[in-house]
Amino acid sequence: MTQTFKEAFYFFRKNILKLLAYTFSVGILVIIIAQLLVPLFFGGMTAEEIGPETIRPFAQLMNLVIQPIYTGGLIALVFSLATDQGRGILNCLFEGVKRWPYMLLANVITTFLIFCGILLFVLPGIWLFSRLFLVPYLVMLKRQTPFEAITNSYNLTKGYSMTILVDIILLLIISFVLLLVLSFLQLLHPLFLLFFLLIFQCLVYVLYYRHYEILMDSQVKSLENNEV
Which residue range(s) make up the domain with 86? Predict the structure, then answer.
């Protein structure tokens, strides 16, 4: 287990209640919004007529709107916890709302680039992911535009690809083993699975943030050395 992974896990364990409180609060809010919007989209349809194919465009639209806000707010919360700012859940969520257009555009562009890389025999997509994982953090925490964030993430992560990939692979292996254990114990109930996925997602963003800190510190030291 790498030192960075240990540090990220310690931070996650220390702040797990606040991170999960944010995640569940946003989840409940999304459910309430969805319940309010369903009659507007499917007002003339019965419950039997609303099948998976019918509701998929609505779900995709909800995800398009909510996901950038949720991600931005989660990054703001992790930063707040790491710097002892003491910002509340609503405050962090509002930060995500303010940066929504930038996060949305950044998500679309990076997803497109990584998807194109995956089409080119998978490995280029994995490599692009390792070079662009900083983009949402630069958009949220450094207030950069999506194009600035993509360029800077690519430059900052030069020679760092294997470092982040080792930690991500390690996290995936641990998660896979835990899923196997839950399956063996017959605890893979949908609610348990949802809770597990929420924990996994939070830990991923904490891990990315720790690497973001390392790369930002490295950039500052590099600038200081150049000035000397």
Answer: 3-40+56-223
Task: Provide the whole-model pTM.
Answer: 0.90
Q: Which residues make Cβ contacts (< 8 Å) with residue 79, sequence separation at least 6?
A: 85, 140, 141, 209
48 domain residue, yes or no: no
Q: What is d(CA 182, CA 65) in angstroms, rounded to the nearest whole number?
A: 33
Per-residue tokens: 82? 């790491």
Please count the other Cβ atoms lying within 10 Å of the Cβ belonging to residue 85. 12
State the DSSP string of 92-148. HHHHHHHTHHHHHHHHHHHHHHHHHHHHTTSHHHHHHHHHHTTHHHHHHHS---HHH
22 in any annotated domain: yes
Q: Quick check: is 46 in a domain?
A: no
How many domains are contained in the chain?
1
Note the pLDDT tens digit of each residue in 103-159: 999 999 999 999 998 888 778 888 999 999 999 999 999 999 999 999 999 999 998
Amino acid at 30: V
C-alpha pair distances (Å), 213 with each of 3, 8, 54, 98, 167: 14, 11, 43, 23, 15
- Answer yes or no: is 81 within a domain: yes
Indicate the helix (H) or strand (E) that contains 66: helix 52-82
